[in-house]
Amino acid sequence: MTNSVNAQDSTTLVIGGTGKTGRRVAERLTARGLPVRIGSRSGEPPFVWEDPATWEPALEGVGSVYITYYPDLAFPGAAEAVGAFSQVAVDRGARRLVLLSGRGEEGARISEDKVKESGADWTVVRASWFDQNFDEGFFLDSVLSGEIALPTGDAVEPFVDADDIADVVVAALVEGGRHIGRTYELSGPRLLSFYDVAAELSKATGREITYVPATDEAFRAYLTENGLPVDFADLFDLLIDGRNAHLVHGVREAIGREPRDFSAYAQDAAAAGAWKV
Fold first, then answer.
1. Mean pLDDT (the chain, rounded)
2. pLDDT for position 2
3. Residue 243 and residue 141: Cα distance in Å, rounded?
4. Residues of the chain with pLDDT > 90: what percent?
5. What is the pLDDT of residues 179-223, one digit of tens each?
6. In the chain, where does DSSP find H-type helix?
């Protein structure tokens, strides 16, 4: 490895540093007085997954990296990009890599293997679906409209809070040690169907929010009409087939406390005005 950098004294590159988990990781590192570089198109210097020429400038002086990939590690080309970037990062002196992955995603496992093969001190954080998808992400417009229409039927998911994910990631980045070479699977403390989610959101907002099961065809048509990747529909297979319909305990394993419940998330987001119509 060339240009070796001390991970404790150097900058952490947070890829997707303006996103749901990246923003929270960057805030926590900054609060500790640790130098952070935001890896995004608008960053200085910019970081663009599709443009490898931006990778080395973003890695200058970097000792550790939080790797997130948009739109998802399961998408075509993700593993190749993550693998190539990880090798460049190690060659440039980054010693510690923490990868955000998804529970139950076979495609994501290939990216995980690429990070492990880079020679870095790695940690993998496999997360369930985020609570924050309902106020910062894909489901926000549906919540505001009062109707969540998705092809999920009665399936259940142990939604996890992005703040819990960020706490685990920061521990892995900053503490190293026992986190190196570990894969943490994260979930919330209970399983919820989208009927349960709608009920929790109704309670938190004080207005009626319903869940309406949609067909796969109707959902794919919705994605197409709104200019969104149709591949997003494939991610719902991870929920429908029940592969993740059980709790895991990575939050407790990594940071020694229980994960936050969805109801607490919903109440706080509502109080902050996330769903004001």
1. 94
2. 37
3. 27
4. 86
5. 999 999 999 999 999 999 999 999 999 999 999 999 999 999 989
6. 20-31, 55-59, 78-91, 106-116, 140-145, 162-175, 194-205, 216-225, 232-235, 237-240, 250-255, 262-271
Residues 43-91: tens digit of each pLDDT = 999 999 999 999 999 999 999 999 999 988 988 899 999 999 999 999 9
Q: Helix axis angle, 106-116 relative to 78-91, nearest 10°?
A: 20
All domains of the chain in start order, with CATH: 11-128+161-187+246-259 (3.40.50.720)
Burial class (CB in 10 A: 0-12, 13-18, 19+), 55: buried
Strand, coil or helix: 160: strand
- Report d(CA 69, CA 21) in Å as an integer: 11
Determine the Cα–Cα distance for residues 129 and 162; give it in Å rounded to an integer.
Answer: 9
Sign of the torsion formed by the C-alpha atoms of 174, 175, 181 and 185: negative
Given a contact cutoff of 8 angstroms between Cβ atoms, the answer to whether 191 and 152 are in contact is no
